[in-house]
Amino acid sequence: MKTATHDLTIGEFTVHKRFLTWSDGEASREWAMLSLLAEHSPGVAPRPIQRAQDGDAPVIVMERLPGAPLSARDFNETIVAELGLALNRLYQVPLASAHEAGLPERRVGPTKIVRMLHYELNQLRDVSACADSGLVSEALDAARDYTARPDAHLTPRLTSIGIADLNPANVLWDGHVCRLVDFEDGGLTEPAFEIADHVEHIANRREGRLSAGALGKAVGLSDEDVVRVNQYRVLWASFWLLMLLPGNGAFSRNPSGTTEDQARHLLHLLAVHV
Fold it and tell me: pTM score, two decimals?
């Protein structure tokens, strides 16, 4: 099985993950995350078995977990509750242990996202291929104005570890328990940032079955963190609008109108939470 970033060889008891890209330390991130979870929250993620090389490419051998990957349509009250328990166990890994393991901040992390978005939103974009280029331009302008306002942004925190990429396919469900896979983008973060990322992921949001309120409740977020989730959601909605612009892979992979839907969603979040 091949993805954009790695090859998977799935055996009866083990999975070999061969990285196709590793310039940002993807293999080291994954090994550190799996090792921390095996020690502090066993059963949430695959147990790491061995680090190896295939030519220049790093390889991680891990146990094969039970369960099948979810799709966005699979989320229901029971699964969301179990996913919340799995994420809570992930967030409970001692931060001191993560520091000792040398785990860096997750990719596109809380301390970096505003700067990254501000830069990308200030690049010239040709949106003429969009079905409603005026709507998309309006949303881009609004996002650009928002990221330029220092008073509008939260002070980022790095208080836990997180998986980063919670594409539904990275959640395995065996009918009773949710387990998590694919930690190559994971690292130091905060739960509110992660929940916002998860619910705004285009694969989740497009189906509308993974709400911030339900997942935040399942994880056990505080009232303060719920507020932070909603503010972070604006940033992640801006991120996905950029990803869905013409010239990017997500534009061609998604149905016509997805970019416009994302633009309307971002403008709604800006009106409600900013």
Answer: 0.95
